Amino acid sequence: MLGKLFLAFVIIPIFDLYLLVQIGSEIGTLNTVMLVLLTAFIGASLARSQGMSTMQKVRESMDQGIMPAEEILDAVIIFAAGLVLLTPGFITDALGLLLLFPPTRGYFKRWLRIQMEEWKKKPNVHMTYHQTEFKAWTNQDQNSQRIDNVIDIETSNPNDKDTPLQ
């Protein structure tokens, strides 16, 4: 996880800055700034239109009594694209635009669905609530958060020996 964060917040911005400097030395500083502003403007307007369209689809699904799962995934990806487009640079703008275009968004959506299935199989956060006490822990420190005063019991009825409890 730390490697992914390092990649996202250190390595990609360094490459983005390098690319900005290289393009700036080729086409000029003012043209580079204008190009970055143009891609940000196009991306923001595309994110807004895609977001509004997705919210309309969510409303329509909710009105029909259908859970808008696909539309919510679209909304999450569009929101991530908007955040990426806020970062100045050509690499981040290209990633943001890829997230916004519906044909390429489908690839990211499939990847996100696979990741969510994996997260469901291996939950990392566990929570318990008992009276006024709330505890949460991750898989790494699960043993230190065990509740030792829980007693498991099985009840039985002497008259119904073979009948399972309901």
Which runs of at least 5 residues are low in confidence (pLDDT < 50)? none
Mean pLDDT: 80
Tally of individual helices: 5
Major sheet summary line: 2 strands, antiparallel
Q: Could you estimate the helical fraction of the residues in percent?
A: 55-70%
Termini gap: 44 Å
How much β-strand is present in the residues? 5-15%
What global shape is seen? Answer: elongated
Strand order of the largest sheet: 1-2
Radius of gyration: 25 Å
Counting helices, strands and paired strands, the structural category is mainly alpha
Order of helices and strands: HHHHHEE
Care to count the β-strands? 2
What is this structure's SSE topology?
Elements: H1 2-27, H2 29-63, H3 69-86, H4 90-100, H5 102-121, E1 125-130, E2 133-138
Antiparallel strand pairs: 1-2
Helix pairs in contact: 1-2, 2-3, 2-4, 3-4
